[in-house]
Amino acid sequence: MSLRIAAAAKAKLVRAAALRNTDLTNFVTQSALREADSVIAEAEVIKASERDYGRILELLENPPQPNDKLLAAAGALPKSI
Q1: pLDDT exceeds cutoff 70 at 81
Q2: Which of 43, 46, 66 lies closest to 56, judged by CA?
Q3: pLDDT in tens, 7-19
Q4: How far, in Å, CA of 20 to CA of 22, rounded?
Q5: 17 CB-near residues (< 8 Å, 6+ apart)
Q6: Which InterPro entries does the UniProt entry name for this protein (predicted)?
Q7: At how many degrees (to 10) do helices 7-19 and 24-44 cross?
Q8: pLDDT, tens digit, for every residue of 47-62?
Q9: Which residues contact 28 (CB under 8 A, 6 or more apart)?
Q10: Helix or strand or coil: residue 33?
């Protein structure tokens, strides 16, 4: 990967890498991976209010009876996958 960045930005990254006793490549890679992990985790987590969370648990513990449309859809599925 190659990057075009301003000299001031590169100098800041070099300084930060030196303060961490590592080279620029490792510093940038590790920083980018931490950010990638954060972005992925944020995208994969479902956020719900306390009220909504309670409703979800209630529905999981006491699911409603299937209606006619659900039964028809289930009946239309292949018997084996």
Answers
A1: no
A2: 46
A3: 999 999 999 999 9
A4: 6
A5: 23, 24, 26, 27, 28
A6: Ribbon_hlx_hlx, TacA_1-like
A7: 90
A8: 899 999 999 999 999 9
A9: 13, 17
A10: helix
